[in-house]
Design goal:
2 strands; two-stranded antiparallel ribbon; globular; binds zinc ion
Length: 143
């Protein structure tokens, strides 16, 4: 068993490996994984902030807030809106964004290891586990 230095997951399988398995399920576009793809990626990236470039935590945090408050439909609308606005968003000045990487949180109450359960991300209860993952991620970033 290893403990992830970033999210705090205790798992035999490294987080990165679990994440690749989850992406494969997401890309199958099947229920319940496919519709929660954007939320899952946001959770993973925010719980592994070493992979974040400056300012790139802003959209995933907004997405998780929309998801926790408004459900999967709100998250889906936001992802689509961002996709349409992407060229505009890329030109937005980055100085509006703070929180350097050194301030990023580590050690979350609910991690990808809990979402994976036995490592296979079972469909049964998956949406509920993703919700706990999103809530723990937001709680960590709230400080
Ligand atoms: Zn981790």
């Amino acid at each position: 068993m290893d403990t992830c230095a970033q999210c705090g997951a205790v798992s035999e399988t490294p987080c990165e490996e679990l994440f690749q398995q989850l992406l494969a399920l997401d890309h199958s576009r099947q229920e319940p994984w496919g519709p929660l793809h954007g939320v899952a990626v946001a959770c993973y990236r925010l719980q592994h902030p070493a992979s974040l470039t400056e300012g790139s935590h802003v959209f995933p945090l907004e997405l998780l807030r929309a998801y926790v408050e408004g459900g999967p439909e709100a998250a889906r609308r936001m992802t689509e809106h961002a996709r349409r606005a992407n060229s505009h968003r890329a030109r937005r000045p980055e100085h509006t964004v703070t929180a350097p990487r050194s301030e990023a949180p580590t050690g979350f109450a609910f991690t990808i290891a809990e979402v994976a359960v036995d490592g296979g991300f079972p469909a049964d209860g998956y949406p509920g586990r993703v919700r706990s993952w999103a809530e723990a991620t937001l709680a960590g970033w709230r400080g």
